[in-house]
C-alpha cells in the first residue's frame, strides 16, 4: 500500500505531466483538489500530534508581529539580537534556537514584536523537525521575513513551498469566493465579472471534498488553486519579504549576482545585510515598518493642542473606529463624532463618523458622550 508521501508524489507528477487545456481542465482540477486534501490532512495530523514544545505559545504584543523564517544556522538569532537586544542564544551550529524567542523593536514610534523561531527544514509542514510548532507560530504573524544567506539563498524556495503546504499564502490577496453548502439543488455557480472557471471545473473540485450541493459566488478572476483554497477555508494570507544575511563574507560581484537571481525569481530585490556587523540593519528596520503598513495618527484632546511628539501607530487601512478600539472600547460605545485635520479630509476640523478612513499624518479629536 502506497504511503501518503508516495501518493502525493504521484499526483504531483500527473498534474505536472498533464497538458492544461479546456478538455483536461476538469481532470486537473480534480487532481489538484485531491492533492490539496491529502496535504491538508497530513498537515492537520502533524499539527495535532503529541508534544507542543515549551515556549511555542507566544502572545502577540505591540503594534505588529514579525516572524523570522529561515533554515537552521541562517542567522535569525543574531539578527533578532541586533534588531531588539533580545537574548536569543547564537552559535555556529544548527538548531540553536529550540523555542520561540520574542523581542521588541522600537522604530519610528512603533513597538514591533519580532519572533525568532527554530529553523524550518524540508518537510516541516508535514511535521519534520520542529515543523508543527513553528508553522503554528508563523500562521499568527502579521509579516514574514524570509531569511536566507549568501551560501544558501535558494533555500528560500524550500521555505516558500513549506509555507504553502502549511496553508500560508504569502504576498497574495484573499480571493473573493463564497461557498455556502446546501441540502439540495446541486451546484449553483454565479460570478461577478469574468471568473476564469466554468461550472464543470467547480463541480469537479467540490466533488473531491464531497460537496455536491452548494451556492458558489466568485467575484473577479480566480484560478483553480484559489478556488481549492476557498473550499478548505483555512488558508492564511500574510505579506512577506526577503533578506539575505552574511553578505560580509562574499565579494561585491557575488552579492550582485544574488540580488539579480532573487529578484528574477520572486519579482522583488532582497535586502542584503549582515546581522553580525550590523550592515543594512537600519534599512531592514525601515522595510519592516513599511511592510507592516503603519500610519501615524496624532491625537488632539477637545479644546487642547495635538500631541505631535508621540503619535498613535496603527496599521492601514484604519478607520476612526479602529483608533477608538485601540484607545479604549468605551470610545466606540460613547462615540458622538470626530474631527479630523489632515490629508484624509477636504478641510480642517471636518466632522467625520466611525467609518471614516484615516491617512498617515492625520490629527484626530474624538468627541464622546459623558
Annotation keywords:
single chain; five-stranded mixed β-sheet; six-stranded mixed β-sheet; alpha/beta; Rossmann fold; 16 strands; 33% helix; Ubiquitin-like (UB roll)
Give an overview in words:
The chain has helices at residues 4-17, 25-48, 76-84, 131-139, 155-165, 199-207, 224-232, 252-266, 281-291, 320-327, 330-333, and strands at residues 64-70, 101-107, 110-116, 143-149, 168-170, 176-181, 187-192, 214-219, 236-238, 240-245, 271-272, 294-299, 312-315, 335-341, 350-352, 363-368. Helices cover 33% and strands 23% of the residues. The protein folds into 3 domains: 4-48 and 175-234, no CATH class; 64-171 and 237-291, P-loop containing nucleotide triphosphate hydrolases (Rossmann fold, 3-Layer(aba) Sandwich), CATH 3.40.50; 294-368, Roll (Ubiquitin-like (UB roll)), CATH 3.10.20.30. 34% of the residues are buried. It has 370 residues and is of the alpha/beta class. It has a 6-stranded mixed β-sheet with strand order 2-3-1-4-10-11. The protein has a 5-stranded mixed β-sheet with strand order 13-12-16-14-15. It is built from 11 helices and 16 strands. Helix 8 (252-266) links the parallel strand 10 and strand 11. It is globular, with a radius of gyration of 24 Å.
Amino acid at each position: 500500500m502506497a504511503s501518503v508521501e508516495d501518493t502525493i508524489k504521484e499526483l504531483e507528477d500527473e498534474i505536472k505531466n498533464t497538458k492544461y487545456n479546456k478538455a483536461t481542465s476538469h481532470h486537473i482540477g480534480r487532481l489538484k483538489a485531491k492533492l490539496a486534501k491529502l496535504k491538508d490532512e497530513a498537515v492537520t495530523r502533524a499539527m495535532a500530534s503529541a508534544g507542543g514544545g515549551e515556549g511555542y505559545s507566544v502572545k502577540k504584543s505591540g503594534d505588529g508581529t514579525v516572524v523570522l523564517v529561515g533554515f537552521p544556522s541562517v542567522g535569525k538569532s543574531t539578527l533578532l539580537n541586533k534588531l531588539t537586544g533580545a537574548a536569543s542564544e547564537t552559535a555556529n551550529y544548527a538548531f540553536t534556537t529550540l523555542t520561540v524567542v520574542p523581542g521588541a523593536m522600537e522604530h519610528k514610534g512603533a513597538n514591533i514584536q519580532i519572533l525568532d523561531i527554530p529553523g524550518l527544514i524540508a518537510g516541516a509542514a508535514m511535521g519534520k523537525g520542529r515543523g508543527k510548532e513553528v508553522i503554528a507560530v508563523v500562521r499568527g504573524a502579521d509579516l514574514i521575513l524570509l531569511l536566507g544567506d549568501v551560501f544558501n539563498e535558494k533555500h528560500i524556495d524550500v521555505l516558500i513551498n513549506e509555507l504553502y503546504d502549511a496553508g500560508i499564502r504569502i504576498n497574495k490577496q484573499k480571493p473573493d469566493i463564497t461557498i455556502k453548502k446546501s441540502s439540495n439543488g446541486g451546484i449553483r455557480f454565479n460570478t461577478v465579472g469574468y471568473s476564469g472557471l466554468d461550472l464543470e471545473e467547480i463541480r469537479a473540485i467540490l466533488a473531491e471534498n464531497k460537496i455536491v450541493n452548494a451556492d458558489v459566488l466568485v467575484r473577479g478572476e480566480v484560478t483553480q488553486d484559489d478556488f481549492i483554497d476557498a473550499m478548505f477555508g483555512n488558508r492564511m494570507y500574510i505579506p512577506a519579504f526577503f533578506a539575505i544575511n552574511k553578505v560580509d563574507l562574499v565579494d561585491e560581484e557575488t552579492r550582485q549576482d544574488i540580488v539579480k537571481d532573487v529578484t528574477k525569481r520572486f519579482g522583488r530585490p532582497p535586502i542584503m545585510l549582515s546581522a553580525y556587523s550590523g550592515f543594512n540593519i537600519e534599512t531592514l528596520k525601515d522595510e519592516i515598518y513599511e511592510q507592516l503598513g503603519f500610519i501615524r495618527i496624532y491625537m488632539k484632546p477637545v479644546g487642547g493642542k495635538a500631541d505631535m511628539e508621540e503619535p498613535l501607530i496603527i496599521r492601514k487601512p484604519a478607520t476612526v473606529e479602529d483608533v477608538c478600539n485601540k484607545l479604549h472600547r468605551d470610545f466606540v460605545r460613547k462615540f458622538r463624532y470626530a474631527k479630523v485635520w489632515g490629508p484624509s479630509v477636504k478641510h480642517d476640523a471636518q466632522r467625520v463618523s466611525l467609518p471614516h478612513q484615516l491617512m498617515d499624518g492625520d490629527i484626530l479629536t474624538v468627541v464622546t458622550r459623558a
